[in-house]
Amino acid sequence: MGSRTTRQRRAVLRALATCTDFVAAQDLYARLVADAHSIGLTTVYRALRELEAEGGVDVIREDDGGRLYRLRPADGHRHYLICRCCGRSRPVDSEVVEDWAARIATDTGFAAVEHTVELTGLCTDCHLTGDEQGEPPCRLEPDSRDRRSSYAR
Amino acid sequence: MGSRTTRQRRAVLRALATCTDFVAAQDLYARLVADAHSIGLTTVYRALRELEAEGGVDVIREDDGGRLYRLRPADGHRHYLICRCCGRSRPVDSEVVEDWAARIATDTGFAAVEHTVELTGLCTDCHLTGDEQGEPPCRLEPDSRDRRSSYAR
DNA sequence: TTGTTTGCAAAAAGTTTGCATAATC
DNA sequence: GATTATGCAAACTTTTTGCAAACAA
């Protein structure tokens, strides 16, 4: 009934540790394959889902419903500010929000309250380059479609 | 170049106003059809996407990437606490979060910062009924799959 | 040995698009 | 009359599942 340590799971974890930012399952798979690993896409999906379930990764959602994963820091989950333009993310201080969520939980009587918080914007780099409308001014799609397309199945 | 008022768009808006909670595009479509309206699913999707773009609706995302829509109150956008069990939602006071997001925006220099905030939990009703593990204890799926299934295409 | 994990191919689901027709302004 | 909206069917994308073979313990 226990969980087993396999070559593939180790590889996924190591690849995830290598990433400096959020990655899509497909990207991670592509990286692994490009890195001469032998692994199936299904396995990558399963590994990420398991990691998500046990809280090993932070997850953000793309507009189209896709998921992006990032290894969670040892000191607990974090929230991020993501550039809609270049896709880069940075963790933000979210104590306030954590407290707020906890307060809501007690105030409402809801149990097992969980929260999803995402911030998006245009980083200064992208902001300087493109127009300021808030919609894709730069070289990359707002969601990471570009990063992914080069590895289309 | 302007947007036109059509029978279908009016119907979507009216149906949305009728809903007391978040609905999926497919559900809204099913309701409209059941209500003897003549409308296409595509049109519903388009209408909702337009409403979303112009800020007429609040949107939450399901685990599977689906979207649920709810007419936005006249006094601006809101955030919600959603029961993972029965799917019902209630608006929560989120001034704290709004302020926090604004602060992050100025602190980081990011432009056009937007935020997504969702709270989920188990409402007291559901909590009393099922076990307390935080996973689907009740009669309904944690995401609204049940509400939708009865109208499957 | 025994129960897990893998991975391929196929399925699934929700949403979007092509395009001819219909309706609005 | 010009432009915009509609709606059907087909396409698309990402993720999940069935199942036999491979593998860890």
Describe the structure.
The structure is a homodimer of 153-residue chains. Chain A has 153 residues and is an alpha+beta fold. Chain A contains 6 helices and 6 strands, in the order αβααββββαβαα. In chain A, strands 1-3-2 form a 3-stranded antiparallel β-sheet. Chain A is flat and about 50 Å long. The relative contact order of chain A is 0.15. The interface between A and B is large, with 38 and 38 residues. Strand 6 (111-122) of chain A pairs antiparallel with strand 6 of chain B, so a sheet runs across the interface. The structure holds a DNA duplex (25 and 25 nucleotides).
State the assembly state of the protein chains: homodimer
SSE order of chain A, one letter for each helix or strand: HEHHEEEEHEHH
Instruction: Provide mean pLDDT of chain A, rounded.
Output: 83
Which range best describes the helical content of chain A: under 10%, 10-25%, 25-40%, 40-55%, 55-70% or over 70%? 25-40%
Let me know the number of strands of chain A.
6
Which spans of chain A of ≥5 residues are poorly predicted at pLDDT below 50? Answer: 131-153
User: What percent of residues of chain A are in strands?
Assistant: 15-25%
How is the biggest beta sheet of chain A arranged?
3 strands, antiparallel
| Overall shape of chain A | flat
Tally of helical segments of chain A: 6
Structural class of chain A: alpha+beta
Strand arrangement within the widest β-sheet of chain A reads: 1-3-2
